[in-house]
Design brief:
CATH architecture of the largest domain in chain A: 3-Layer(aba) Sandwich
CATH topology of chain B: ABC transporter involved in vitamin B12 uptake, BtuC
Number of strands of chain B: 2
Keywords (chain B): Cell membrane, Membrane, Sugar transport, Transmembrane, Transmembrane helix, Transport
Mean pLDDT of chain A: 86
Distance between the termini of chain A: 55 Å
Protein name (chain B): Simple sugar transport system permease protein
Shape of chain B: globular
Radius of gyration of chain A: 23 Å
CATH class of chain B: Mainly Alpha
Number of domains of chain B: 1
Mean pLDDT of chain B: 89
Organism (chain B): Pseudochelatococcus lubricantis
CATH architecture of chain B: Orthogonal Bundle
Membrane topology (chain B): Multi-pass membrane protein
Strand content of chain A: 15-25%
Number of helices of chain A: 17
Helix content of chain A: 25-40%
Oligomer: heterodimer
Low-confidence stretches of chain B: 352-360
Low-confidence stretches of chain A: 505-511
Number of domains of chain A: 3
Order of helices and strands of chain B: EHHHHHHHHHHHHHE
CATH topology of the largest domain in chain A: Rossmann fold
Subcellular location (chain B): Cell membrane
Strand order of the largest sheet of chain B: 1-2
Structural class of chain B: mainly alpha
Amino acid sequence: MSAVPPRLALAGITKRFGAVVANDDISFSVAPGEIHALVGENGAGKSTLVKIIYGLLRPDAGVIRWNGETVAPTDPHAARRLGIGMVFQHFSLFDAFTVAENIALGLDAAGDRRALAARIASVSASYGLPLEPGRAVGTLSMGERQRVEIVRCLLQNPRLLVMDEPTSVLTPQEAEVLFATLRRLAAEGCSILYISHKLDEIRALCQRATILRAGRVVANCNPAVETARSMAEMMIGNELRVTKRMPSDRAPEKPARLSVNGLDRPAERAFGVALRDIRFSVGPGEIFGIAGVAGNGQGELMEALSGEWRTSAAAAIAVDGAPVADRGPQARRLAGLYTLPEERNGHAAVPGMSLAANTLLSARHHMGLTRAGVIRRDAARRFAQRIVSAFDVRTFGVDVPASSLSGGNLQKFVVGRELLQKPAVLVVAQPTWGVDAGAAAAIHIALADLAREGAAIVVISQDLDELLSLTDRIAVISGGRLSRTLQTAQVTVDEIGLLMGGAEGETRDAA
Amino acid sequence: MRLELVRRPESPWFGIVAPLLAVALTVASGFVLFLALGLDPVETLYQFMLAPLTTFQSLTELGVKGAPLALIATGLAIGFRANVWNIGAEGQLIIGAIAAGGVALAFWNEAGWWILPLMLAASVAGGMAWAAIPAFLKTRFGVNEILTSLMLTYVASLILQMLVFGPWKDPDGFNYPQTRLFSEAALLPVLIEGTRLHAGALVALLAALAAWFVMARTVTGFEIAVVGDAPQAARFAGFSTRRTVWLSFLVGGGAAGLAGAFEAAGPIGQLVPVLTPGYGFTAIIVAFLGRLSPPGIVAAAALMALTYIGGENAQITAGLPQAATGVFQGMLLFYLLATDGLLRFRIRLTGARSPRAAQP
């Protein structure tokens, strides 16, 4: 025991939302200069706890001590004054503004422009986070945007930095750079509370880990002496089912179920990416992975595959030989092509509507949820209930709004909605994004089962581990072009990392 | 000093409490207003809010004035649900009335059962055609529909004036700017003998019922709600925003046009330069006061009709200026928006900090 009080100590933190106890008597502490991991399933109470620390929520019971003194931050300003910095999973940056302008917007007291630019330059240089203050954020990669958020925090001299799933948007190489920065910060005495699902990362980076399950602390451990598997088991409370898939025994002579034949799409928005000559095909029983750093055309490709964007060149996309590229989403579903976009809230689901109503978005025809244009509300509720029980969605029934579910549970719901319709071809983006290990395993198993039944599946993901364990073949999208296709079994992480950086195709021009 | 809005936890009560609170605050402000005007506030408020409810005759007037409001608001609410802002119902109403009036004048010396249905069909088509202009401009060129639909109202009003001051003026009308009185066959049947309550009130109720069914039970209603709530999710579902914009304008314009025919062929019985006391605009308040739901809209239309009748009543008995009706309606909308906002958000003042203070 050292004489120095912990930087942050939580004692008996409890937070209830109605009947749900999100945080139940949580206690742990973070020492000065410590990198501390907070690990747990979705709905385990991590987000609630972080919001309490950052002053966005007030605990019902319990005490927060900051350097030994009891504090009760009432809002983020108060938390920042204490010296708590936060980097959220979703960035709050404006594309059209410059780096300096974005940083000034987020500071409580920005001071004058030129002094700020100088401080940005000095902080970013001293921590190995190169940034050009005058560049528009829209032209930056995801990793660079994260740097903007981190520099914004560092300008306020934080003594505790909270990072929520920071590597979900980074290439493996970029993640290494981030780790170096974090280690450097820790060495200077800044504590770091690191929230992640990637247990290997936690083992490499963190000195201690607090594991939450169902709102309680279930374990405190030293990640270096645990295995990823043992931590995952503590997290979900039972033995983990391994999802490593055997490569499919696809008979090569079978015709492709999905074929994309030279798909082109011009850039539409100011910072959009143009798709150029995308070609790939996926056979029955096959899972095809598309890797890449966010913002390299995944969104544009997804819209082109889903039918939210159409082209007159109908044959650019074919499902079981039938051209569909000129048709809308519903017509493509009738042809057997189902898609699931990356963003759950407001894209794959309407947050303000009930789960039952949300089934109507994609399943209204195939599951017979309407008759002569009239909604069969019982049928919609029954289908929603089927999804909830088949995919273990934790919810108070199917009449609650989608926004009341945690991210991982809503993800299970929307994945279940598409899978239960038995699509011939399923294209899914980031299927386990922000989802805990237990739910991710369930989703992976369900995707593998669907492939075994003869469907063709495309997984667009930034999570390389996911793609390596799930897919049969893999290609990388970079700057709107798709790389050559690799056999997943023979590929190395380094090889993919290089393709992600655009080593093969042209370099991406800054719009 | 800085103002911040902090979201409060949602409660299902907000939807009911906000309109009731808004009505209560309007009454309280009315009290102060009448006092300042040197009137007896209790007596004036009684004349304004309660007296119209005490006689059978004025209760039927509630239906006469409430019907067009409910009909227009029901149509508009569908568009508002989809975030399509048709502000030009007044103009669509005028064009609908002109279309109906044109039919009535063309066959003024004929009697046939088909004249009235033809007038109503013409009014719906006229209202839709007028609403189609902002719909086309929005879907084709991305023009803001609030501006176009609003400005077209003034165009419609001038067209009406041109007609009644010019070619359609009653040849036996001593040069008054109004058309012939419609023939018997071109007038709406009265529901209760001795009153002005006409068949339009029944149509307004049926329209509200139909709109409720469409919005709550059909895929089309779901589509409109999804386009309004989450446009991206609507694209994912394969719903067309363009289709929803057209649908919103055509339904809203058609309903407003029909209301125009009901006014011309009902209480007025001819075309005059000013057809309504601004029903097309008041209907916007009605739609929001009724929370965009058809049952709420019917109740809100009755309340708004009450302010019209009560305003006239108070003018006669208490010498209240005519503008007081408009002030009352304005206060009601203002308080509705305010209570709605304040129930959902808490306002917090954060103190000013010296910009240098937080710098290291």
